[in-house]
Design brief:
Oligomer: single chain
CATH superfamily of the largest domain: MazG-like
Helix content: 40-55%
Shape: elongated
Number of helices: 6
Strand order of the largest sheet: 2-1-6-5
């Protein structure tokens, strides 16, 4: 997974930076440091270990239960930093937040365009204002038949675009299909995180 002999520990006085990312959601959870002892323990146990300037070797979640199961460890081009993709058993931050990259009253930024869309659909679903026309998303959420019809239409249009070997149109139709699919899933109480977890589970089988 990771050859410790290739890492540049000397550059950081015996430490390398570790950027820890949720392997399922893509969220950046935390940034810490690790020395060779911590990384050796990580490789040996399959759970993240770091180096704390106050505690020394630090097994993440040893006392809280919020462990981080390693999926992959990848060094950067300078070999002085590591991207750790993990499956967290609980919050990463000592404040109890899922990620350390939050501030009071503000959630962490979405990890990608799908996360942004998921959050937007959720916001539209909770928008009950009656002083304006409902958004298209609200119309879809309120009309089961319309949701099903649009998924069928967009799927058919994507098939035709692919059959015509039209990359630009296929990209546009795929975006339409994914949007309508996510709205239909939201109507069933299914969020993007649920789909990601299912895909992640399949990838581990």
């Amino acid at each position: 997974m990771l050859d410790l002999d290739l890492l540049n520990f000397a550059k950081g006085d015996g430490l390398v930076a570790v950027v820890t990312q949720d392997a399922t959601t893509g969220d950046v959870l935390m940034v810490a440091f690790a020395d060779r002892v911590a990384l050796d323990a990580t490789l040996r146990t399959g759970e993240m270990h770091y180096h704390s300037r106050t505690r020394g070797l630090w097994h993440k979640g040893a006392t809280s239960g919020n462990t981080q199961k390693v999926v992959s460890l990848t060094a950067d081009c300078d070999r002085d930093a590591i991207l750790a993709r993990v499956i967290p058993a609980g919050p990463a931050c000592h404040t109890g937040a899922v990620t350390c990259f939050t501030t009071p009253g503000n959630a962490a930024p979405p990890s990608d365009a799908f996360a942004v869309l998921d959050a937007t659909i959720a916001a539209r679903a909770s928008d009950t204002a009656t002083d304006r026309s409902p958004s298209y998303t609200r119309k879809l959420l309120g009309n089961r038949n319309l949701r099903m019809k649009k998924i069928g239409e967009e799927a058919a249009e994507l098939v035709l675009a692919c059959a015509d070997a039209d990359p630009e149109r296929a990209t546009s139709e795929a975006a339409d299909l994914l949007y309508h699919t996510m709205v239909a899933l939201h109507a069933l109480g299914i969020r993007l995180s649920d789909v990601r977890e299912e895909l992640s589970r399949r990838g581990r089988e």
